[in-house]
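Hi both,

Apologies for the delay on this - the queue was longer than expected. I finally got the flavin-adenine dinucleotide-bound model through. Below you'll find the protein sequence and the ligand SMILES exactly as submitted, and right after that the structure tokens for the full complex including the ligand.
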Amino acid sequence: MPQAFDIIVLGIGGCGSAACAHLARRGVRVLGLEQFGPAHDRGSSHGETRIIRLAYFEHPDYVPLLRRSYQLWDELEKSRSTHLFRKSQLLLSGPAEGETIRGALRAALEHELTIEQLTADDVSRRFPGIIIPEDHAVILEPDAGFLHVERCVDAHITEAQAHGAELRFNTPVRSLVIEPNSVSVTTDDETFHAARLVVTAGAWTASLLTALQVPLVVSRKVLAWFSTHEPTYHVDAGMPCYFFELPEGLFYGFPSLDGQSMKIAQHSGVEPVADPSAVNRDISPDDILPLVGFARHALPGVSSTLLKHSICLYTLSPDHHFIVDTLPDAPHVSIACGLSGHGFKFASVLGEVLADLATEQRTDLPIEFLSLNRFSHC
Ligand SMILES: Cc1cc2nc3c(=O)[nH]c(=O)nc-3n(C[C@H](O)[C@H](O)[C@H](O)COP(=O)(O)OP(=O)(O)OC[C@H]3O[C@@H](n4cnc5c(N)ncnc54)[C@H](O)[C@@H]3O)c2cc1C
């Protein structure tokens, strides 16, 4: 006899684990299905750290969601007695008229956020070891920092299980059928039925949810840890996260957590992946050279010695903004996808939004700008 659940969550990564936790807390009979193990390194939610910030240069409309996200990460920390967020500040460096500085200033102004504008001299006094290009403006965001990404996913998983969610790992979903008032989801061993479905399948969304009809591009991204023993780069010495808009691309990174390495990555650039399950996880000189070039100029105390790397996946929507909605022809199916390489910081609030959409078909959180109808021409 097939088992019945109120809601199935497909994919227990960043957003899916959060959705499971929010749904389970509401007393819903929730089944989460995940193709890999808990907090695995095959999707988009791994690699130690994720930046979280409020002065959102991508669009000011994200700020109310971010405020709620901060609150929810804090609540999760308390509920699970763990440390998820580290307030380390964030330094943004770019041309005064570039998208990063202009966008961050706009978000800060519209939402009355605390930021500081610094000169290159201020930076060299306060953060020796960071070199700012002559023509750059600099913003420091004091309330920004980073999340311990795997710990966050684990905390949501534990929270969901503590509230009665049934989570099955190493259980790939092979197919799903959306009926007018229900869904069926088939794994290798079983078919599950539920009244509602939440799809949080990250890079695998397009292949599973053909009804979506919005093109999503999966891109291979490299995270690289370079050797450094420079004390000023350590998080405990006050080193902030950093994000540089340069002619060569957008580069970012984190303070050293271990006193031996710094994680650096490139946000810009798209390397499309046809099958997220078959992405090349080896690293080549082409992957590393842009990062070494960036570090040589901006962080001269970082060496070019690569200590380790990880391959991660961006899932890009056509406009690089998230898609968070119910399906137009199937309002009992909710989705969060196309997080476009900047979504982890929102996982906590997106879990809440998805729980609202799945249980009430509406939410009070301001997500209209992330709805599917903006792609009606696609
Ligand atoms: C290198 C890199 C750096 C980033 N930096 C930042 C940052 O600093 N700040 C920030 O906010 N964001 C950042 N992001 C973006 C952020 O990490 C992602 O937007 C977010 O993690 C996506 O979460 P998700 O739940 O959509 O995907 P995932 O966490 O990948 O979850 C999807 C899950 O669905 C599962 N799944 C898929 N198909 C099936 C199936 N058929 N059956 C069962 N399970 C299935 C997958 O295995 C996976 O666990 C970064 C991303 C990358 C790759």
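Main takeaway for now: The pocket of flavin-adenine dinucleotide is lined by residues 10-16, 33-36, 42-45, 47, 50-51, 172-173, 200-202, 204, 208, 221, 223, 265, 312-314, 339, 341-345 (CB under 6 Å).

I'll put the files on the shared drive as well.

H.
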